[in-house]
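Recall from the previous lesson that a structure prediction takes nothing but the amino acid sequence as input. Here we apply that procedure to Guanine nucleotide exchange factor synembryn from Xylaria hypoxylon. The sequence below is the only information supplied.
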Amino acid sequence: MLSGPAKLAATTSLVDKLTQDLASVNLLPHQRDAALEELKIYGRDPHNADPIFTREGIEMLTRHAFDSPSSTTSRNALRCLCNALLLKKECRQIFVDLGYEAKVCNKLRNDSRDDEFLASRIVFLTTYDTDTKLEQLIDKYHLADSMIKNLERHAKHHSDDGRSTTDPMQETALTETLKLLFNITHHCKQKASSFTQAVPHIVTILCKGSFQVDKPLDQPIGPLVNSLLNLDLGAKEVQSSLYPPAKPTALSDRLISLLDQSRARYQDEELDSTVTPLLGVIQGVHGHASQDVQISMRQKLLPTEADRKEVLGQSGSLPSWLLNNSTNAVAPKLREMISDVLFDLSDKNASRFVENVGYGFASGFLYNKNISIPQNASEAFSNDTGSSSRPVNPVTGQFLDLEKYSDAPEMTDAEKEREAEKLFVLFQRLQANGIISVENPLRTAVEEGRFEELPDDYKEDVD
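The prediction returns the following tokens.
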């Protein structure tokens, strides 16, 4: 492999040769394709490959990519172009300025996974650092229609039980289409409704597709989930796909299964970018589901009777993992999303939320959202949880009859008084700062005559 001045000379020669070929055809098809293949290799590293990344170099590649009658030549040029746009962001605006929007969108109409991948990658890259007009691509050049058609092809492929061994390009093209769909619906929210018809195909692939991945949200599974984030899951025309009559929980079960698998496979530093979108989709699916589907989801995501045998968050269950990560300082997006989801699963009712997760996990979220906190434990736990009528510790969420007590010797009366005074002062400060609005239990005890203040000359009996 050439490097340094020799690589620069070879790159310059190839760009000149391919540029002249556009003015007057002087290369045979195999010579042209070989030149583009060699140029692609040099273009993987921008050092000493400057001619590729100039306006003239990008225009040459664009013309071979979109004006050539040969699909082989076109794809070879598209690969070079993809590398250039990936490595040098200024090349993206050059491409946009050349005005090939119609032709790149037309490429997506081809029933070819290679063209789907390459054209999707180019449009995807131009969603960064350019002034490309996404609305025009959708309205004038039918980008959404072409992408939905490609997703339909992928869905058909994954619905075919007798399909042959998957072509690696199939998954690569699918991933690129999904990434492009997410970016367009993120950067051009006003046109997100143009992609609503993609929902049934995405759900089909997500629920029926079989992919060999190292981690549960590796491509294309992660992009499948992410692509649903900005789409209208409440649209009437997609309800039967999200909640199929034969098995309404098919999608919710699949999403929760991915969440359950993910909790053991990702480090704290990865959670915000990988698992947070999955929880966002779970929230959306729950929000538009029937009562039966919602009940099914709550049974899997909210603490169960088994979880309440210990302080909530101590068991190895998925609900415990969610509760623990609702306070994860390393993953701020995830912790906020978890609390949002758990609050939604509690019908957005503060008392039910406290009842489901305990004061310990609920109070901070409710305070930050400026939602009134139930004034006392009995108010929050006045309704049965639906799973048990056994008394529960309102702070920890554990069944009272299963609480473990310390073996430390009982405090003396003097120690009890000192601790009571500390608690009294603490409650006064919390009330003064507006953090809680509960009645100070020590004041209540004093008023009811259940609190005895010891005299100053009190001496404890010692055996």
